[in-house]
Amino acid sequence: MLVRLEIRDFAVISNIVFEPGKGLNVISGETGAGKSLIVDAIGLILGAKASRNLIRTGSPSAFAEAVFDCADISDGEFSRILEDNGIEEDEGMLILSRTVYDSGKSVARVNGTSVTNGILREISSRLVDIHGQHDTQAIFDEGTHVKMLDRFAGDKLVDLHREYVNSLQAFKDLVVRIKEISSSPDYLDRRREYLEFAVGEIEAASFKDGEEEELHDTKKKLSSNEVLFESLTNAQNCLSSEDSYQSPMQSLNLASRELQKAAQSDESLKEIAERAKALSLDLDALASDIDKVLAERNYDEGLKERVERRIGLLYELKAKYGATIADINKFAADSKAELDAIEKNKDILQELKKQRSVKEKELLKIAEELSSERKVFAKKLEKAITKELSDLEMPGAVFEVSFVRREKAKFFSASGIDDLSFRFSANPGQEARPLSAIVSGGEASRIMLAVKNVLSRVDLIPTLIFDEIDTGVSGKASLAIANKLKAISTDHQVLCVTHTAQIAAASDRGFVLTKNVAGGNTETKCTVLDAGAKIGEVSRLLSGSDSDSSLRLADDLIKSFC
Which residue has the higher pLDDT, 473 or 63? Predict the structure, then answer.
């Protein structure tokens, strides 16, 4: 969850530190105080587009930093993303920051490591989900509805859709080839030349399954042996250099012989002569042992270069013919079969049309299965969201997922063979209509909250942020939204920007933003509300005053959530 947010030189904010806790954290304040700037700053940290307009007047840059406690995250994919980008958690903590400069450029970091904006978004998407006015508009876009349904369904539909997309691409490839042959008389000649070149290149390389792993293992061992070989060779050269100057071993042998002669004339030199002789023998043995190790290692200085060239060749072939050695060799086999068909003067066009027919049947089978599975999960989604809407003071509302089979001419789309859309009716007896037909801002906000709440239970994202989710609602609807946010906060950390007393009263931790103007500069301050200040803020939101009656009403409202 988010444990600390620091914002500096961001619009009207000079420097504030925001420290939310578990449960429901509510941010309130007067209009123009900068409540939504906190959400904007978090959005920037999560990878939103940077703009120099965010920088406080007179400052060279704007800065936002968020500290997340990730100790309880068990998402294996999240750990893989961090590992792939060389990012280590610091005792379960992750620090994401973004600096925007007056040049318009920005720098993003995760635990001090510079990352691209894409990586920042990939990491942060597992930590926080922001629901604001943009999201309310997004649910009106029917192009997003099939993605929402698949997200709700989980891995089963994701895998099935991936299989459909792969099959669709294979079908499209056949269609393109048929079109090329039909429209180009010399296509087969060009195709033959290409296939012959590809087969020749692949067969000349002659890669075997498993060889890529062996090459990388060999390269790794050779890199290690290279250092070892260099050290041993240097040691050997030091002991037995064949240069014009004498090596240490030659010098010691000569000294030993001279000392032996001297000892014959002077008995007192016998001990020194014996020590020299022992050192000479040890040095001979040491040089012999080094020679033996070098002989056993049999280091091939050219092998590393040959291995690197072969790895480079493999990468070239992978870029052209397939992601693995097996794919490359299969490409060669398929190419030889096609060449054989061309050489035997088979009707290639007719053969490809047969293949297209087979592939179309396979594609249709997968598409029908995808459609069928989606309809199963659509019923579950309808039930879940309708219940959420009932909890949000819309007991007669109906939420439906509509499936319309596409026209034959446009049958296979990237998402499937159905046009899928969400439909809604606010009252019993009324026909469900597209979400885009909704004109009430209050209805749109509650539908968005219902959809997001259902999806958040599936995603298990730790922190959910709602920016003015209460727009266009009041009274019982506001109370219903407050209760819903309170319920969500039992499983998630929730941050909510609000102008509604009911939501402020429901908070586990309240914050108020105030704006002051001094010396011609505007300054925003963030204050944590204690029990008394919380009553005063709820009273302000209720009636705009701090009269005794308003304060009592505020106190009663707060107690109703305890």
Answer: 63
Q: Which pLDDT tens digit goes with each residue over 279-338? A: 777 777 777 776 776 666 655 667 778 888 999 999 999 999 988 999 999 999 999 988
* pLDDT band at residue 66 under the 50/70/90 scheme: very high
Residue by residue, DSSP assigns 459-514 as H--SEEEEESTTTT--HHHHHHHHHHHHHHTTTSEEEEE---HHHHHH-SEEEEEE
- 325 Cβ neighbours under 8 A, 6+ residues apart: 207, 208, 209, 210, 211, 212, 314
**Which of 414, 421, 342, 338 is closest to 382 using CA atoms?**
421
Among 2, 10, 5, smallest CA distance to 55 is for 10
Q: Is 416 left (phi over 0), alpha (psi -120 to 50) or beta?
A: left
pLDDT value at 250 more than 70: no
The answer for 47, left when phi > 0, alpha when psi is -120 to 50, beta otherwise, is left
pLDDT digits (tens, 9 = 90+) for 268-285: 767 877 887 787 777 777
Residue type present at position 236: Q
Nearest to 513 by CA among 13, 5, 2, 1: 13
Cβ neighbors of 534 (< 8 A, separation 6 or more) are 504, 505, 507, 510, 558
The gap from C-alpha 53 to its chain's centroid, in whole angstroms, comes to 27
- The closest alpha carbon to 108, from 126, 89, 85, belongs to 85
**Enclosing H/E stretch for 284:** helix 270-297
For position 244, what pLDDT does the model report?
Answer: 44
The first and second tokens of residue 135, run together, are 């999201």
All domains of the chain in start order, with CATH: 1-140+462-526 (3.40.50.300), 142-183+347-437 (no CATH), 187-345 (no CATH), 530-562 (no CATH)
Q: Residue 261: its pLDDT value, please?
A: 66
Q: Tens digits of per-residue pLDDT, 366-386?
A: 999 999 999 999 999 999 999
Any idea what the Cα angle at residue 306 is, between residues 303 and 310, rounded to 5°? 140
Which residues 6+ apart lie within 8 Å of 145 measured at CB? 139, 401, 420, 421, 422
- Identify the CA nearest to 291 among candidates 333, 244, 249, 243: 249
Q: Are 383 and 376 in contact (CB under 8 A)?
A: no
Average pLDDT over residues 524-529: 88
Provide the CA 9 distance to its chain's centre, in angstroms. Answer: 28
Task: Say how many CA atoms lie within 13 Å of 27 toward its Cβ.
Answer: 25
